[in-house]
């Protein structure tokens, strides 16, 4: 319908930074690992698969990145960024303690609420340092990857 070759991000500016290309075990499927630079879905969502595991965290991370760039007035996220890394780090510490206390108190609702607060503030802190949730997940993935056998 465009009458020309379509390139992801031509009109939106939302592109994918390709990290790796992988073939499956029998070579008939290609997996593209990429870091999105903006929403990847034409509906302005982080993913065209909104029910995929982690999809909402990706959307939250993208929203926080936009808030950091745009700094909308009245936004709590803007106030955090304006307060600086030390204040954001303090909030992560507070939420971490509150999460641990809720777990010890065996209050599931409080634990879930505090966990959500912790994830949000951690995402803001990562963005304030020029990092993302994907960067943290990459570290987890690397730690999980099987390494060379170590002689005991």
What this model shows, in words?
The mean pLDDT is 87. The N and C termini lie far apart (62 Å). The protein contains five helices and two strands; from the N terminus they run ββααααα. With 152 residues, it is mainly alpha-helical. The protein has a two-stranded antiparallel ribbon.
Number of helices: 5
Structural class: mainly alpha
**Secondary-structure element order, N to C:** EEHHHHH
Distance linking N and C termini: 62 Å
> Radius of gyration, Cα only, in angstroms?
19 Å
Q: If strands are numbered along the chain, what order do they take across the biggest sheet?
A: 1-2
Main β-sheet description: 2 strands, antiparallel
What percentage of the residues does DSSP assign to strands (E)? 5-15%
Shape: globular
Overall mean pLDDT stands at 87
Brief descriptors of the model:
mainly alpha, two-stranded antiparallel sheet, 5 helices, 2 strands, 51% helix
Question: What topology does this entry show?
Answer:
Layout: E1 15-23, E2 30-37, H1 55-70, H2 76-83, H3 85-104, H4 108-128, H5 133-144
Antiparallel strand pairs: 1-2
Summarize this entry quickly.
This protein is mostly helical and 152 residues long. The chain has helices spanning 55-70, 76-83, 85-104, 108-128, 133-144, and strands at 15-23, 30-37.
């Amino acid at each position: 319908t465009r009458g020309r070759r379509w390139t992801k991000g031509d009109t939106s500016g939302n592109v994918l930074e390709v990290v790796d290309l992988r073939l499956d075990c029998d070579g008939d499927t290609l997996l593209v690992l990429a870091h999105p630079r903006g929403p990847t879905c034409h509906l302005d969502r982080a993913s065209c698969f909104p029910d995929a595991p982690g999809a909402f965290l990706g959307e939250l991370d993208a929203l926080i990145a936009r808030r950091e760039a745009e700094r909308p007035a009245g936004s709590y996220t803007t106030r955090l960024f304006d307060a600086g890394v030390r204040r954001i780090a303090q909030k992560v510490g507070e939420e971490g303690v509150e999460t641990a206390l809720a777990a010890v108190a065996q209050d599931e609702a409080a634990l879930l609420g505090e966990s959500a607060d912790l994830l949000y503030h951690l995402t803001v802190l990562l963005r304030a340092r020029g990092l993302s949730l994907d960067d943290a997940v990459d570290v987890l993935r690397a730690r999980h990857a099987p390494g060379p056998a170590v002689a005991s």
